[in-house]
Each structure stands twice: as structure tokens, then as C-alpha cells.
């Protein structure tokens, strides 16, 4: 008999009922609400005459609709209404809220791991597609829609079809100047944005094992950009060391029991996956996207693709439209493309290690006069730690704006948008048409590459940045 | 949720891959409005309108006879990206009731069923065949999508069989009384039993969140 995958083990432990035809009723261990979907969800449970079944397993924080300006000035009227709705809704339901200015507030996918809410083997959901991020801890985590959110609040369960499984081996050693973000962008470019559709992905291999936890969270964050709702990485000693002592992580006798269970989670040696992919990471360069889909990506020292090279008709049409939207010429190097905005933040890359890596590039240098550059820490706690290390001072003296934690320019609420026709290098995860504002042109990259673009005033190779 | 049984209606060709939910509905529109029904005018905003706010004549759903389309003939990975259920509300708000595509974003696919919109997976070649039979000049643009028989009928009468997850199909055929929540509420005993057993096996899931701050 073949062994079980980590995915299957976690799935099995959460089955409340087998509904037949590969559909299951699953128990939800952790549910995180944000300001955009939380207030409406709580309200709709009330409207149906129901109650929140397990408020103690539910947590909330504002991130999407609040401004990242000092004092949150600039939060739109609707944003304020949503924040008030989240406050009153969580208060009346007895749900723990991490409010503005408190440790615990931040982007939902940054605070889950940071607070120890996200645990290996736990099933965590949130009304946001990047919930796959939490898989970096060894959790099974995925984004849900509004109706599903109401279902979870009212029943602490969810009806889900069981996906197929795919394992992606990332093997070898990353070159200097190359980050987890570059690897996952390269992978999306190789497998395509639909490549993971219908699968739960497990990332494995020596490159994953040698990554720190924050890098693993970045890799899992972009799983949805592969089309996979779930991305996960087996927990190991690094995971345990990361979690130990965190506010909601098990402690004392529970810690011992939990770690013993967590050690049973990795896929069995003889486990079978529906699909396996292997990528050698040794030659992967820093990557940057050129189009309006994360799969339209290239090594930073590469050439913008020539349409004549693209054989697939659909892909060619998409590429032509993307180049037009992005205002780029085929066949030209992407390096040297002038940049107007740089955004360092989002649930892909706003953790402490990301800010350190960007600060290293920014230290002692100046942001080009033609560029506006923002750093938006992922959470209140990241912000405080970064300030304690003096990273804010490094950014400020280089000419970056240091802002309050939240989603900010990743989704362009509160007027935190890139103006139409302007070009931004962003550490977020989506370069869709209009994502950072109507007509905005987004290039996805790592924090180091984004910082290099801010300094150079154009897309640049962080490995070759002069003084 | 309204039931979906069968539909014969104008079908619009929209064979672009990787149409994401940001393109279907901008997040700003979701923040600004409360009623699901109000989103129709903002559906496909970036494609539908020119920068000056006027209609983009090149966009298929702005053209006759496709303005009144209820079926969309779409490309692969349709509805990828953000989990926003507003994408489904917006499409329904502009009158769309079924989407035929080679594949779907998984969260979008689930969201469709929750609202009475039918996502149909058909091979790309079948969708291309259906599109090749559309004759907008003679008004031959009607496609039948029959959930009862799990059959799509092209304007020229060709038939294509499709599959829908059985539980989802039942729920759509019946409408509201078969939505997930109503059914799950009847399983409260099983949920309570699962939690009681789970508390023994994984006590930290329940106990470690009881920290006082
Ligand atoms: S940072 Fe961006 S991608 Fe992440 S949760 Fe916020 S809006 Fe979504």
C-alpha cells in the first residue's frame, strides 16, 4: 500500500463527514477575518438567525481597507465604516480582534504565523486567496469566498472537494542575490499560472529545506498564482524553533504533545502524488515580470520576449496585449526600463527578513529623484522590530517612505494607487491589469530587486548595483 | 440561491486565458457598495469602458447581439486570482448565468455554485467549435446549457456532454433549500462529536488559543 502524503494526513484528520463523490465536510481549526469580508460575514450569520459557532477559534484584524498613512489618515469613509463594523461585530460575537496600533495587527497572512495561530497540521481559512501563505508552516490553508466564510462562522466547518496532489521539488543551492521570491516567480514562469489548478501543492527538496520560515511563507504565498489553492511545506526543526514561545503556540506539556504529532506529518517516503515537478535552482537569476500575469516573467538580465517566438496563439495574443498595456518593446532588455514607483510590502514580502534584505540594498544609497518609494511593513510587530533594528532610519535616509502596516498599494484601496500609465516595481504577488490602480503598470520582484530599482531609477540587476 | 436547471440564451465568445477576478470586478467597487445586485455596471470595467468612461466598442459584451448574453464562452483558468465572490455577483449583475471554459480558478468555481451561476468545464476544442458556429449577423448565437441532462447544445445543434460535481448539481437544481449551510446545520451532532474526539487527540488546537492578554 502506498504511504500517505502530508496533504492526505491533514485532510483525513479534519474529515467530519464524507459526503460522497470526493466531497467532504472538514473541520476548520483557525479562521481569520479581515476588514473587507469580516463585517459582512458576521452580519450575514446574524441575518440568518444563527450564531458564531466557535468565536474562540476565530480571529480578526483590519488590513485591506485601512490607510497605511501615519495615524491612518486617508482611510476612506467606507474603510472607516468597515473598521467600525469589524470592531462592533467581533465585540458582540466574542471574537479576538487585533486592532490598529496593537501588536497582532497586520496583514492576515503575516500575523497568523507571527502569533503562532498558524500551526503545522492545522486547517486554516480566511476570505482571501493568499491564505495559502500559511502552508509555509506546514498548515493546510486556503482562501474562501463570502458564502463559504458565512458557512465557517456558523458551523466551524466547510464543504470541500478533495484536490489532486502535486509535489514540486526545488533542488540545489540558490545563487547569491537570488531569493525565495525569484524562485517562485521562476517556477510560475515554468509551470504557468494554470499549472497548479486542481492540485494541492507540496514544495520539497534541498532548496526548501535550507530556506528560513519567512522564505517558505513567500514561496507558499504565490501558490495561488500557480492556480493552486493550497501550497504547503513539511514542518521541521526550523518550523518548531520559529513557533516556540509565540503568543498562541502551544506551551508546556502541550508543546511536547504538539511537536510529537507534527513530526508525523511529513509525507511518507512511499507516498504517491498525482504529479511531480522538479526544478534545479542553481542557475535561477533574480526575476521580474514583464506582463500582466505572474507567468509573464523573465530573468532580470533577459530580453522582453519577441512575439514571433511564441507559438501558442492564445499566449501570443495575451503577450501582445500585455506588452501594449505595459508600454514595453519586445526584444529589448528589461534592465534600464524607467520606474516611477517602488512598493515594498504585501503578504508576499513584508516580513522582517524582507525588510532587512531591502535595507541592505538601500543602506548608504539614495532613491532616484524620479522615483517614489514606499516601505509598508506587514504587521505592527514587524514594524516595531524593524524600528528597533534601525531599518526605518536606513530607509528614511535613503528617501523611502516608512508607513503603517497593512495591504496598502498591493490592492490599491484608499487612493494608495500607482497613477495610470506609471510604472511600479512591487514586491507583491499580482501584476494584473489595474491591480495597483487603473492603468498602473506593475513589475513583480523581490525586495532586493525592488530596492535596487528605487536606487537606480530603473529596473536593475541587484547583483551589479554600483555605489 | 436561485435554482439553475436549463438555459437557452445568447453566448458571447471571450476566449482569453487567465481572466482574473480583479479584471472581473475591481476591489474598490466591492468596498463601495453593499448590494450584490448593484455591481453589474462595474463588471469587466477595465475592458468595458475607455479611460474617458465611455463604452469600449471593441469589448464583445458592448456589441450587438452580445449585450444580452447570458452565457460566456471563456478561456482557460477563468476566474483565477482573488477569492472575491463579488466577481460572481458582478457577472450575474450583468445578466450572465453560465460560463463555459476549459478550466477555472478553484475559488471562483466554488463561488459560482454558491450563487446559482453554472461553471461548465469543456475542452478548449469544443469551445472553439461552438464559437465557430456563432453567426451574430443572422442572430444564430443561442447556446443551450442543460444542467439536468449535463449537456451543452451549440447554435448548430452539436451536443457536448459535461460533468458537474454531483452534490453541486443537486444543489443548483434545487436552489436555496439545498445550500451548503442548510445541510451542514443538520450535521451539528457530527461536528460536536468530531470536536470532542479532536480535543483528545490535538488539545493544543483548542487550548492554546485560550491565552489571556
Ligand atoms: S497584501 Fe495584497 S495579496 Fe496580501 S492579503 Fe493584502 S491585498 Fe491580499
Show the helix and strand layout.
The complex is a heterodimer of chains A (467) and B (213).
Chain A: H1 6-13, E1 15-20, E2 23-27, E3 30-34, H2 38-47, E4 58-61, H3 77-93, E5 96-97, H4 108-115, E6 123-126, E7 140-143, H5 146-155, E8 157-161, E9 164-171, H6 180-191, E10 199-204, H7 206-209, H8 213-221, E11 230-233, H9 237-243, H10 253-262, E12 275-280, E13 287-289, E14 297-299, H11 313-326, E15 341-344, H12 352-362, E16 372-375, H13 380-388, H14 391-398, E17 401-402, E18 423-426, E19 441-444, H15 447-456
Parallel strand pairs in A: 3-4, 3-6, 4-5, 6-7, 9-10, 9-12, 10-11, 15-16, 15-18, 16-17, 18-19
Antiparallel strand pairs in A: 1-2, 2-8, 13-14
Helix pairs in contact in A: 2-3, 2-5, 6-8, 12-14, 12-15
Chain B: E1 6-14, H1 21-24, H2 27-32, H3 45-48, E2 71-74, H4 86-93, E3 98-101, H5 106-115, E4 118-121, H6 124-132, E5 142-146, E6 151-153, E7 159-161, H7 166-174, H8 180-185, H9 188-201, H10 203-207
Parallel strand pairs in B: 1-2, 2-3, 3-4
Antiparallel strand pairs in B: 1-5, 5-6, 6-7
The complex binds iron/sulfur cluster.
The site of iron/sulfur cluster (SF4) has 14 residues of chain A, from helix 4.
Task: Characterise the protein shown here.
Chain A is α/β, with parallel strands linked by helices. Chain A has 2 domains: 8-275, Aconitase, domain 3; 289-464, Aconitase, domain 3 (2-Layer Sandwich), CATH 3.30.499. Helices cover 31% and strands 18% of the residues of chain A. In chain A, the strands form 5 sheets. In chain A, strands 5-4-3-6-7 form a 5-stranded parallel β-sheet, with helices on one face. In chain A, strands 17-16-15-18-19 form a 5-stranded parallel β-sheet, with helices on one face. Chain A has a 4-stranded parallel β-sheet with strand order 11-10-9-12. In chain A, strand 3 (30-34), helix 2 and strand 4 form a beta-alpha-beta unit. In chain A, helix 12 (352-362) crosses helix 14 (391-398) and helix 12 packs parallel to helix 15. The longest helix of chain A is centred in the first third of the chain and has 17 residues, at 77-93. Chain A starts with 5 loop residues before the first helix and ends in an 11-residue tail after the last helix. The model of chain A has no long low-confidence stretch (mean pLDDT 96). With 213 residues, chain B is of the alpha/beta class. Chain B contains 10 helices and 7 strands. Chain B has helices spanning 21-24, 27-32, 45-48, 86-93, 106-115, 124-132, 166-174, 180-185, 188-201, 203-207, and strands spanning 6-14, 71-74, 98-101, 118-121, 142-146, 151-153, 159-161. In chain B, strands 4-3-2-1-5-6-7 form a 7-stranded mixed β-sheet. In chain B, helix 5 (106-115) links the parallel strand 3 and strand 4 (118-121). The radius of gyration of chain B is 20 Å and the shape is globular. The N and C termini of chain B lie far apart (41 Å). The interface between A and B is large, with 82 and 64 residues. The structure holds iron/sulfur cluster.
Amino acid at each position: 500500500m502506498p504511504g500517505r502524503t502530508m496533504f492526505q494526513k491533514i485532510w483525513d484528520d479534519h474529515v467530519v463527514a464524507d459526503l460522497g463523490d470526493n466531497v467532504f465536510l472538514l473541520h476548520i481549526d483557525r479562521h481569520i477575518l479581515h476588514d473587507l469580508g469580516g463585517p459582512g460575514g458576521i452580519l450575514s450569520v446574524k441575518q440568518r438567525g444563527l450564531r458564531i459557532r466557535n468565536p474562540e477559534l476565530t480571529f480578526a484584524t483590519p488590513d485591506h481597507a485601512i490607510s497605511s498613512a501615519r495615524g491612518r489618515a486617508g482611510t476612506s469613509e467606507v474603510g472607516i465604516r468597515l473598521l467600525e463594523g469589524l470592531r462592533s461585530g467581533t465585540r458582540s460575537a466574542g471574537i479576538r480582534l487585533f486592532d490598529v496600533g496593537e501588536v497582532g495587527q497586520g496583514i492576515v497572512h503575516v500575523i497568523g504565523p507571527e502569533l503562532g495561530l498558524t500551526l503545522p497540521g492545522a486547517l486554516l481559512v480566511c476570505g482571501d486567496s493568499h491564505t495559502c501563505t500559511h502552508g509555509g508552516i506546514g498548515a493546510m490553508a486556503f482562501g474562501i469566498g463570502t458564502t463559504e466564510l458565512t458557512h465557517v462562522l456558523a458551523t466551524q466547518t466547510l464543504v470541500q472537494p478533495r484536490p489532486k496532489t502535486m509535489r514540486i521539488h526545488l533542488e540545489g543551492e540558490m545563487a547569491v542575490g537570488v531569493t525565495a521570491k525569484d524562485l517562485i516567480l521562476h517556477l510560475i514562469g515554468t509551470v504557468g499560472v494554470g499549472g497548479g489548478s486542481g492540485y494541492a501543492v507540496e514544495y520539497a527538496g534541498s532548496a526548501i529545506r535550507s530556506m528560513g520560515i519567512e522564505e517558505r511563507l513567500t514561496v507558499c504565498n504565490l501558490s495561488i498564482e500557480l492556480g493552486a489553492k493550497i501550497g504547503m511545506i513539511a514542518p521541521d526543526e526550523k518550523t518548531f524553533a520559529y513557533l516556540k514561545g509565540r503568543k498562541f503556540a502551544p506551551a508546556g506539556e502541550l508543546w511536547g504533545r504538539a511537536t510529537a504529532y507534527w513530526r508525523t506529518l511529513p509525507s511518507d517516503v512511499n507516498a504517491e502524488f498525482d504529479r511531480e515537478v522538479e526544478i534545479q535552482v542553481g542557475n535561477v537569476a533574480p526575476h521580474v515580470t514583464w506582463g500582466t500575469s505572474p507567468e509573464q516573467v523573465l530573468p532580470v538580465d533577459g530580453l522582453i520576449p519577441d512575439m514571433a517566438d511564441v507559438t501558442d496563439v492564445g499566449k501570443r495574443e495575451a503577450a501582445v496585449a500585455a506588452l501594449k498595456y505595459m508600454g514595453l518593446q519586445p526584444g529589448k532588455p528589461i534592465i534600464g526600463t524607467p520606474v516611477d514607483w517602488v512598493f515594498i510590502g504585501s503578504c508576499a514580502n513584508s516580513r522582517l527578513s524582507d525588510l532587512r534584505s531591502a535595507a541592505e540594498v538601500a543602506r548608504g544609497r539614495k532613491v532616484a529623484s524620479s522615483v517614489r518609494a514606499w516601505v509598508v511593513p506587514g504587521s505592527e510587530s514587524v514594524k516595531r522590530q524593524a524600528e528597533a533594528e534601525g531599518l526605518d532610519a536606513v530607509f528614511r535616509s535613503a528617501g523611502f517612505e516608512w508607513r503603517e502596516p497593512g495591504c496598502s498599494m498591493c490592492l490599491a484601496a484608499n487612493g494608495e494607487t500607482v497613477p495610470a500609465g506609471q510604472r511600479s516595481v512591487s514586491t507583491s504577488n499580482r501584476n494584473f491589469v489595474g491591480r495597483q490602480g487603473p492603468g498602473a503598470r506593475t513589475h513583480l520582484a523581490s525586495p532586493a530587486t525592488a530596492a535596487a530599482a528605487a536606487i537606480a531609477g530603473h529596473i536593475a540587476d541587484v547583483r551589479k548595483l554600483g555605489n | 440561491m436561485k435554482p439553475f436547471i436549463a438555459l437557452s440564451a445568447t453566448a458571447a465568445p471571450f476566449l482569453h486565458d487567465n481572466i482574473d477576478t480583479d479584471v472581473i470586478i475591481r476591489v474598490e467597487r466591492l468596498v463601495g457598495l453593499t448590494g450584490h445586485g448593484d455591481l453589474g455596471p462595474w463588471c469587466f470595467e477595465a475592458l468595458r469602458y475607455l479611460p474617458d468612461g465611455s463604452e469600449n466598442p471593441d469589448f464583445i459584451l458592448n456589441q450587438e447581439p452580445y449585450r444580452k448574453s447570458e452565457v460566456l464562452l471563456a478561456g482557460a483558468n477563468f476566474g483565477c486570482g482573488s477569492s472575491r465572490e463579488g466577481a460572481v455577483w458582478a457577472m450575474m449583475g450583468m445578466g450572465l448565468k453560465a460560463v463555459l471554459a476549459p478550466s477555472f480558478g478553484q475559488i471562483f468555481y466554488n463561488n459560482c455554485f454558491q450563487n446559482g451561476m453554472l461553471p461548465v468545464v469543456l475542452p478548449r476544442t469544443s469551445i472553439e467549435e461552438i464559437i465557430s458556429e456563432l453567426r451574430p449577423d443572422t442572430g444564430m448565437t443561442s447556446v443551450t446549457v442543460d444542467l439536468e441532462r449535463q449537456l451543452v447544445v451549440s447554435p448548430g445543434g452539436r451536443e457536448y456532454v459535461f460533468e458537474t460535481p454531483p452534490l453541486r448539481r443537486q444543489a443548483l437544481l434545487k436552489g436555496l433549500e439545498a445550500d451548503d449551510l442548510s445541510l451542514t446545520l443538520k450535521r451539528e451532532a457530527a461536528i460536536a462529536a468530531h470536536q470532542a474526539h479532536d480535543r483528545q487527540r490535538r488539545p493544543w488546537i483548542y487550548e492554546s488559543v485560550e491565552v489571556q492578554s
